[in-house]
Design goal:
heterodimer, A: 498 residues, mainly alpha, two-stranded antiparallel ribbon, 2 strands, B: 118 residues, Methane Monooxygenase Hydroxylase, Chain G, domain 1, 2 domains, 69% helix, 0% strand
């Protein structure tokens, strides 16, 4: 009988993920044991689990950049940053969700424990994408994240728009996944491996050799870029976005504008930079064109929207474009290459301002108002604090200094200028000016119009706290951005570049 | 830089041309004399009872899910059983953990009413 060599995984490296998994199990068990009225206890379980998972990042030695499970799982600075972004976004999403889901804003109500479990599963999947060291792990993580979000989009199953959005999201998402895995198959066919570092190592001699790059590699690259482009909603793969954002329960829209996007960008960075980095000449132009198309389309179409959720959906397409600019500024792995770090920092800031904006919409909905621009009329007289929070988020999304959104855009532009992509940097500035129109319109409506519609007084302490935290975060983290950026800059070390 | 993509474009164009030309050629050449029997989905099979678009209960999906779970369980347990001795205590503990997770899942579904068929 042959001797079996057992590879003992280093469990210590996946502690944040394990804690989150434990939380999910507790939430699911709580669903069975607790009665419907006791379900709100699970809010605190989820928040505590997410906070613990965030804190447990401190127990890992990230400097070592070790990998486990035969290189499937990498615990490096890139995955640390993704863990932080996703953990923070998760906490904020739970805070804005609880009153909406439990308060019965949707017909026949929504089951809170299942909502929480799906949310946490999606977060776990995104963390796995961030730490993936292999194409298959990326696939698994993305699917784990997206399947949960498809279900969340259609969670208000008695409302037709919710189902419509979910179905469109699911069909296009499944299609994108097929394209993605096809690209992975071509990559495997061309290089003979699915491990990211190994792919890069085998590609390096190919590009320096004579005869150029084989078409099969380019096909793989194209398919991967298209598949991931769907996940981040880049134009022309954005068609599902507005309907899904409009149809989903509002807190879910906020959540899915951030965390699945983080998963998509993490996968893009892992695949394009870490694995296909040697082919960067072939994908940089592609990404730059995608970035331009995405930001122009998103921002221009957002102007015509009167439904605030839909407007934020198009604006999120625009922001995808800005983030792609950061990726397009990749210049081949040097210590001062700011491409991936600007992407990471942008994702961090986006979590605060966009979940915040959707949080204010949720806040209005729990007070009996709708989601159109008219429902924002005169918010400043009804609730000055909510109006201030919304103003902060809108100005930050627009990119006004000294708010967080300004710094995010600033670093992206800086990265682009550094590699000589002046035209793209100019496009970001011009499009920010265009976006000022529809962001400022919300602010103007809140302050300069008379209130309409019925207002019912409602207490939503957790949602209020969440909004306050996000508004403060938007104000403060911009000024404290340099330590965060230093942390993000360590991606160079994470991706194993000399 | 980008001219490498021309090959892929060429391949796509070839595929589209091949497909459409062959379909068109078939349409031009073949005779077309339909009879009711010929138009049935299965020419020599049992006639349809229902249109294929009838709605059926989602409980089938839940049963299918349960089936998949236990299918995977069986697939994982066979290789473990084959190499039970060399894997030793570590393998045993791992398998027990795996079974416990499955059992918890089954209990969850049971409590949620997945096994009640009405």
């Amino acid at each position: 009988m042959p001797v079996v060599e057992l590879v003992r995984p280093e469990w210590g490296l996946i502690v944040p993920e394990l804690i989150l998994l434990g939380t999910i199990v507790v939430v699911l068990a709580g669903d069975l044991i607790l009665s419907r009225r006791q379900h709100s206890v699970l809010t605190w379980v989820a928040l505590a689990g997410l906070a613990l998972s965030l804190l447990s990042n401190l127990t890992i030695d990230w400097d070592a950049g070790r990998s486990t499970f035969n290189g499937m799982f990498q615990a490096d600075y890139f995955s640390l940053f993704i863990n932080i972004v996703v953990g923070v976004a998760g906490i904020l999403s739970v805070m804005i969700s609880s009153s909406y889901v439990e308060g019965g804003e949707e017909p026949e109500g929504l089951p809170w424990p299942e909502y929480l479990a799906l949310l946490l599963f999606s977060i776990l999947g995104t963390m796995l994408v961030g730490a993936a060291g292999d194409l298959l792990m990326i696939f698994l993580g993305i699917e784990m994240g997206s399947l949960a979000v498809y279900a969340l989009t259609g969670f208000a199953r008695r409302r037709a728009t919710s189902l419509e959005g979910a179905l469109k999201y699911f069909l296009l998402g499944a299609f994108a996944t097929a394209i993605l895995i096809y690209g992975m198959a071509w990559t495997y066919g061309a290089t003979g491996t699915t491990a990211l570092d190994e792919i890069a190592a085998r590609l390096r001699p190919v590009i320096t050799g004579e005869g150029g790059i084989e078409a099969s590699l380019l096909l793989a690259l194209l398919l991967l870029a298209i598949g991931l482009g769907f996940k981040i909603a880049a134009v022309p793969f954005h068609m599902w976005t507005p309907d899904a954002y409009q149809g989903a329960p509002t807190p879910v829209s906020g959540y899915m504008s951030v965390v699945p996007k983080v998963a998509g960008f993490a996968a893009m960075a892992r695949v394009l930079v870490q694995a296909l980095g040697p082919l960067s000449d072939s994908w940089l132009t592609l990404i730059a064109i995608l970035a331009l198309a995405t930001m122009v389309y998103g921002n221009v179409v957002a102007i015509a929207q009167r439904d605030v959720k839909r407007m934020l959906g198009y604006s999120s397409i625009g922001h995808t474009g800005y983030i792609l600019v950061g990726l397009a500024a990749y210049s081949g792995m040097s210590a001062d290459d700011r491409s991936v770090s600007s992407v990471l920092f942008y994702l961090f800031s986006y979590a605060f301002m966009n979940i915040g904006a959707f949080g204010v919409v949720t806040w209005l909905q729990s007070r009996g108002l709708g989601v159109t621009l008219d429902d924002f009329r005169g918010l400043a007289t009804r609730s000055p604090l909510a109006a201030i929070a919304m103003t902060v988020f809108m100005l930050s999304l627009m990119g006004l200094p000294p708010l967080l959104g300004f710094y995010a855009k600033y670093y992206v532009i800086l990265a682009a200028v550094q590699v000589g992509l002046i035209w793209l940097a100019v496009a970001v500035v011009v499009m920010s000016a265009v976006s000022a129109f529809f962001y400022l319109r919300v602010v103007a409506v809140m302050y300069f119009n008379e209130p309409v519609g019925d207002w019912k007084t409602q207490r939503t302490p957790l949602l209020g706290t969440g909004l306050a935290l996000m508004a403060i975060g938007t104000l403060v983290f911009g000024l404290l951005s340099s330590p965060l950026l230093d942390l993000a800059q360590k991606w160079v070390q994470a991706f194993g570049v000399a | 830089m980008l001219q490498g993509y021309a090959v892929i474009g060429l391949m796509l164009i070839t595929a589209i041309l091949m497909g459409s030309v062959l379909l068109l050629l078939g349409r031009l050449v073949r005779p077309y004399r339909p009879t009711p029997t010929k138009l049935q989905p299965y020419e020599s099979g049992i006639p349809d009872v229902d249109p294929p678009k009838t709605r059926y209960t989602p409980r089938f999906y839940i049963v299918a899910m349960l089936f998949v779970i236990f299918d995977i369980e069986a697939i994982f347990l066979y290789p473990w059983a084959v190499s039970f001795v060399p894997l030793g205590v570590y393998g045993y503990v791992t398998a027990v953990v795996f079974l416990t997770i499955l059992l918890a899942g089954l209990l969850y579904e049971w409590k949620k009413g997945a096994l009640e068929w009405v």
